[in-house]
From TrEMBL:
Domain Sucrose phosphatase-like: 50-225
Pfam families (alphabetical): S6PP (PF05116)
Coiled-coil zones: none
InterPro entries: HAD-like_sf (IPR036412), HAD-SF_hydro_IIB (IPR006379), HAD_sf (IPR023214), SPP-like_dom (IPR006380), TPP-like (IPR024197)
UniProt-recorded name of the protein: Sucrose phosphatase-like domain-containing protein
NCBIfam families xrefs: HAD-SF-IIB
Organism: Deinococcus aerophilus
Amino acid sequence: MIVAFTDLDDTLFQTRRKLPAGAAGLTPATVDRDGQPHSFCTPAQSALLAHFAASGVTVVPVTGRDPAAMARVTLPFTSWRVLDHGLTVLRPDGTADPGWREQVLAHLAELAEALAGCTEHVAALAAEHGCRLTRHRAHGAHFMTVLKHPQADAARLEALQLAWEALLEERAWAGLHIIANANNVSVLPRHLGKAEAVRYLREQHFPDAALTLALGDSLSDVPFMNACDLALTPPAGQLLRTVTAARLPQR
Ligand SMILES: [Mg+2]
């Protein structure tokens, strides 16, 4: 058995804005809240999915999407699914895996005070910078706070990121960390995420997999990519852009 654990947004599909003008042969992959096509697979992304399907590869999405956002993905995923940045593992029948839920809720109970502290600490500053603050829940428990700026203003998002980084250090809240991308900054558990969910699935449900592939575009995907046998990443994604810019000495 071969299992492909794969991020979704900007790995298997992306919005039209991120595609070259006049890109052809696109296949709709998600819809927006009004049911209109929103993200698309390129011919190469469609070919990869078709290849996986034809060769019997089990494809397991590993995404930050919550269940509502996952429901707007129109690609046919039929196996296990990892949602909410790893906090939710769905079985093939669509119900939450109870063993994983139990572990997650126990871990979140330990982090509840720090997460609430981070959220309150930055609320006024977020409003000042015109950023929207959202508390995300999994299994009914707060696990992540996200700040978004409507125009994705990098300077304002960075100011909030720095405020959070300073607070985490000052309070020694090592169980949380910050992830940032183009239009948002989030605080979420450091030791419970996509990587731990992928390890859990490998151990509990795919112990006999001959090969596990990991597909992702972002730095936040790296831990789960490191939990698989082989990693694939798109050019010009956050991950390869960072590696390209690193100019590390060759040893
Ligand atoms: Mg992605």
